[in-house]
UniProtKB/TrEMBL annotation:
UniProt protein name: LacI family DNA-binding transcriptional regulator
Pfam families: LacI, Peripla_BP_3
Gene Ontology terms, MF aspect: DNA binding
Highest taxon above the source species: Bacteria
Keyword Hydrolase (UniProt): no
Keywords associated with the record: DNA-binding, Transcription, Transcription regulation
PANTHER family documented for this protein: HTH-TYPE TRANSCRIPTIONAL REGULATOR GALS (PTHR30146:SF109), LACI-RELATED TRANSCRIPTIONAL REPRESSOR (PTHR30146)
Domain HTH lacI-type, first and last residues per copy: 11-65
Entry annotated with the keyword Transcription: yes
Region of interest called Disordered, as start-end residue ranges on this chain: 314-334
């Protein structure tokens, strides 16, 4: 029997050049990220590569170059919106630079899992490693390993500022609505995003003279928000209880709102709730969720540039507060 896959001719550089209407040398320059290529030409070549399902042979190309034009991405908890959206943004940012990504998943709490992920991406001959959803301990371990290529934490280091600023926006919004007693539901303490968001919340609380009535934590999931709801609901009717809850991500906010409703409380009538991330479904929560939107595409471009040792260009756009129905003025009644 003839294997159809084996008899199919492999698409080559000449095929890409023919479809894109350029020379084979231009295709080669795009593949190798030559700087003197017009954006329109680069886009035409990349589109042709995608249309033809062209695959770059990194192993063969690296024999004559110092780079494979591939970046390693190490991620965990990709079922959550934040990490999944970050990986997609990195893929887009890398492709715009004629780069590709090799992704490995690791349990940050398991050193062997992290070691295996590192070995996998380094085995691809990557030019840099980007850590998505970085756990503080995992990043410190990777730094100590001296990978021999740049190591960048998405939303860590230079990327942490929008996280802090976004959390501060949520507090300022609640303060502007007259809330002076605010509680917080945060994420796991060893995540870089949680560290930055907690710092932004604390700084804004001091600025606006907010009484932080309580702080809880969860694992970023909707189930964690629902699990905390009975305890939070019990605190709300008290005279010194919170009138608003700042939640560290949208998924936990969704669970919290559902759990509060099960406890007989309505958002925002009895308590206002803010989220963080602006997941695609946030506008369809009931009530629609007031949340913070980050420039993931801009952060991905920053990380790709940093991993390649290039100038970062324009920084990510500032975080944006998206006001919807889950927040209202203190004392408001429908």
């Amino acid at each position: 029997m003839t294997d159809a896959a084996a008899t199919t001719r492999r698409v080559g550089v000449r095929d890409v050049a023919r479809l894109a209407g350029v020379s084979t040398q231009t295709v080669s320059r795009v593949i190798n990220a030559h700087p003197n290529i017009r954006d329109e030409t680069r886009a035409r070549v990349l589109d042709a590569m995608e249309a033809l399902d062209y695959r770059v042979n990194n192993a063969a190309r690296s024999l004559g170059t110092a780079t494979t034009r591939t970046l390693g991405v190490i991620a965990s908890d990709a079922t959550l919106f934040g990490p999944a959206a970050a990986i997609a943004a990195l893929e887009t940012a890398a492709r715009a630079q004629a780069r590709w990504i090799a992704t490995a998943y690791a349990d940050a709490a398991d050193e062997a899992s992290v070691d295996d992920a590192v070995a996998h991406v380094l085995g691809q001959g990557v030019d840099g490693v980007i850590l998505v959803a970085p756990h503080v301990r995992a990043f410190e371990r990777l730094e100590a390993m001296r990978l021999g290529v740049p190591l960048i934490a998405m939303h860590g280091g230079a990327g942490a500022e929008p996280q802090s600023a976004g959390a501060a926006l949520a507090v300022a919004h609640l303060a502007g609505l007259g809330h002076r007693r605010i509680a917080r539901l945060g994420g796991p303490a060893d995540w870089a995003e949680e560290v930055a968001r907690a710092e932004g919340f604390a700084a804004a609380a001091r600025t606006h003279d907010i009484v932080v009535t309580a702080q809880w934590s969860g694992d970023w999931s909707a189930a964690a928000g629902a699990a905390r709801a009975p305890e939070i609901a019990a605190a709300i009717p008290e005279g010194d209880g919170p009138t608003a809850i700042a939640v560290a991500n949208d998924q936990m906010a969704l669970g919290l709102i559902a759990g509060l409703r099960d406890a007989g409380l309505e958002v925002p009538r009895d308590v206002s709730v803010t989220g963080f991330d602006d997941v695609p479904d946030a506008a369809y929560y009931r009530p629609a969720l007031t949340t913070v939107r980050l420039d993931l595409a801009g952060e991905a471009r920053r990380c790709v540039a940093a991993a390649l040792g290039e100038a970062a260009g324009a920084p990510p756009a500032p975080p944006e507060l998206v006001v919807r129905g889950s927040t209202a003025a203190q004392g408001w009644h429908p």
